[in-house]
Amino acid sequence: MTRLKAERYLFRQAGEIRDIPIALPGEPPTLGPAYRFVRAAIAEAIEQASSASDTVTDNTNPVGLVLATNFGDNQLMETWLQIDHKFETPAAVFETGFQSVADRLAAQFGFSGPRTVLSLSCASGGAAVAVGADWIRSGRVSSVLVGGYDALSDFWWSGLSALRAMSPDALRPFDSKRDGTIFGEGAAVLMLEDATVARRRGAVPHARFAGSGLTNNAFHMTAPDKEAAGLQRAMKMAIDDAGIRPEMIDHVNCHGTATRYNDVTETQAIKNVLGSRARDIPVTANKSMTSHTMGAAGAMEAVASIMTLQTGMVPPTINLREQDPACDLDVTPHRAAQHDVATVLSNSAGIGGCNAALVFQRANMDRR
């Protein structure tokens, strides 16, 4: 880490963004990196989703917003928590809340639909995608921006350090000597839209959202369920929601945190759900390259899953020296691999027992 005073901490490796987007004219200087990350991601999503004849925000249908974060834009909160510092106005109190980022972004981009903020630990970003899709299916909106974000701060780095779940050097999913995750920062945002509305305005879809599953282990505040029952249920729910069979899954984008228990339990869940084909399906742990970006992770991995559908390129799991025999899957070690991928399952799991699973398919595939 360079932005925080790394010498204060036992764990000093982080997935840090060095090129922070600059503040735009009119934005308060108190807004921190987290806000700028998600604002930049939303701008990119809108640009990609806009057709030759319109932009998303010109659409007559109200646009919804579902954001996910573990810590919000807490740079401002850290300022107010300084010794002898007092809140000067009621508005200052509001600005430290999780909802304030979504409210400010909705006003900035003209999103007049419903909006909400989720905080479901490391499953947050995946859950945001699922909730946004449910809004479209229920008819609440026809277009919704979904995603997650988080930024490094002393406040949350202190708390995560106390968990002693971090590696001092490298994030090594599925490795027999894995010794923890490495946390980081970032943002990822997707535009979900009703297919009929998208076709009418000439939009070109990147993929088709097919299904989702959300569960909670109801097991332990921090430890994963060693039987992986909650994640397994979420995966089955997503496959059933997509109206497909388990044997139609071509690739799994894993949660893959490189913690001792997570990798083993996720491996077992994949084998339980996908059966005899599990060892033949390429899986990947993106966090080995991006770090664990907390509230952004599930949304980032949804983006990676969609890019795999577009290119057929399964990203690698790096930092793998000796694969754990208990993690006996094709983890795409070291280098990306080309596969015929039509359907992807993306997993997220979090401290507190939250689980999210998403299914995406190629844009031209019908529900089957």
CATH third-level topology of the largest domain: Peroxisomal Thiolase, Chain A, domain 1
With strands numbered from the N-terminus, the spatial order across the biggest sheet is 5-11-10-6-7
CATH homolog superfamily of the largest domain:
Thiolase/Chalcone synthase
Broad CATH class of the largest domain = Alpha Beta
Computed Rg? 20 Å
As a percent range, the share of strand residues is 15-25%
Task: Provide the residue-averaged pLDDT.
Answer: 91
Shape: globular
Model description:
This protein is of the alpha/beta class and 368 residues long. It folds into two domains: 6-200, Peroxisomal Thiolase, Chain A, domain 1 (3-Layer(aba) Sandwich), CATH 3.40.47; 208-361, Peroxisomal Thiolase, Chain A, domain 1 (3-Layer(aba) Sandwich), CATH 3.40.47. The protein has helices spanning 33-49, 75-80, 90-95, 98-109, 124-138, 154-163, 195-200, 229-241, 260-274, 287-290, 297-311, and strands spanning 63-68, 115-118, 143-150, 186-193, 208-216, 251-253, 283-284, 313-314, 337-338, 343-349, 354-361. Strands 5-11-10-6-7 form a five-stranded mixed sheet. Strands 2-1-3-4 form a four-stranded mixed sheet, sandwiched between helices. A two-stranded antiparallel ribbon has the order 8-9. Helix 9 links the parallel strand 6 (251-253) and strand 7. The N and C termini lie far apart (47 Å).
